[in-house]
Known about the structure:
GO biological process, one term: protein refolding
Number of domains: 2
Shape: flat
Radius of gyration: 25 Å
GO molecular function: ATP-dependent protein folding chaperone
Helix content: 40-55%
Protein name: 60 kDa chaperonin
Oligomer: single chain
CATH architecture of the largest domain: 2-Layer Sandwich
Keywords: Chaperone, Isomerase
Pfam families: Cpn60_TCP1
Amino acid sequence: MNPMDLKRGIDIAVKTVVENIRTNAKPADDFKAIEQVGSISANSDTTVGKLIAQAMEKVGKEGVITVEEGSGFEDALDVVEGMQFDRGYISPYFANKQDTLTAELENPFILLVDKKISNIRELITVLEAVAKTGKPLLII
Length: 140
């Protein structure tokens, strides 16, 4: 068998399967449908399915849901308001609250930068001025 013919056949099959899935797909946009999908995804655990549906109802389609293993015996839903970034801290030492791994700054100076900082020397004047005040600096 010719490998190129095999690849062409696989490409045609993939295209056909994707079209078939798109044609037969049904949106899960109500609470009951999301609960059913969540339950199936959680190995038929309806309690987890209900929690997933509740979470989706609270955060919406663009929201972020994070599942974490808890220390107790009960399943629970905690909603945290805020924003999520695709990347975390460059170093865990940026977190000044080690129990929550967050950085909390009180009354900081805020420096908005519209380009990548590639050389610390570009900021030396600002850093020296901020250091003299003793206040924190947030660079965005």
